[in-house]
Amino acid sequence: MSVDPDRFRSLLSRFASGVTVLSLRDAAGRDHGMTVSAFCSVSLEPPLVLACVDRAASMHDLLLASDGPLGVSILSLAQEPLSRHFADADAERWAGVPMVRGESGVPLVAGAIAHLECRIVDRHPAGDHTILIARVERGELGEGGPLVYFRGGYADLQR
Q1: H-state helical runs in the chain
Q2: For a pLDDT cut of 70, what percent of the chain falls above it?
Q3: Cβ distance 131 to 124 under 8 Å?
Q4: Burial of 144 by CB count in 10 Å (0-12 exposed, 13-18 middle, 19+ buried)?
Q5: Taking Cα atoms as reference points, which of 95, 76, 50, 100 lies closest to residue 154?
Q6: What is the CATH number of domain 17-149?
Q7: φ, ψ at 29 (rounded to 5°)
Q8: HSE toward the beta carbon, residue 105, CA cutoff 13 A
Q9: 24 near 63, Cβ under 8 Å?
């Protein structure tokens, strides 16, 4: 017995998640980014996180091939428009977006409530996604409340 895709999506929409932007620079020095809400911690020792990326995502193949740093910007409530922007497959992802560079040179969304600089250490195919495991090498804290995704839309924890 299996749950159909629409029911599965509806069930999992009841699980609130934070919203991140994954980012990297390719070998030609171009910056890339995408919105990801399937993100969580894995381990404290060593410090590991995971992100699940759809195989149809524009950055998927770059993430599979990358041995460079991976940026994670944990978005603030005020950054909902940036979440939508980085989710748009047709958008020029970094055009007009306030950006800072991490120590590794990876692009990070300015004003995020946290920045992580990571290195991908493992990749696992899983259905129509790939699970990326990354070791956190650096992190910076920002200010503000989190952008939360719940029941197919954005939610405000401060209401």
Answers
A1: 5-12, 60-65, 80-87
A2: 98
A3: yes
A4: middle
A5: 76
A6: 2.30.110.10
A7: 85, 10
A8: 8
A9: yes
94 with 33: CB under 8 angstroms? yes
**Contact at 8 Å (CB) between 111 and 76?**
yes
Residue with tokens 């060593």: 46
Q: How far apart, in whole angstroms, are the C-alpha atoms of residue 77 and residue 66? A: 30
**What tokens were used for 48?**
């590991």
Residue 10: both structure tokens together: 């509806």
Ordered by start, the domain boundaries in the chain are 17-149
Backbone torsions φ then ψ of 152, nearest 5 degrees: 80, 10
Q: What is the pLDDT of residues 25-74, one digit of tens each?
A: 998 999 999 999 999 999 999 999 999 999 999 999 999 999 889 999 99
What one-character DSSP code corresponds to residue 57?
A: S
Candidates 125, 123, 126, 99; CA nearest to 112 is 99
* Amino acid sitting at position 139: G
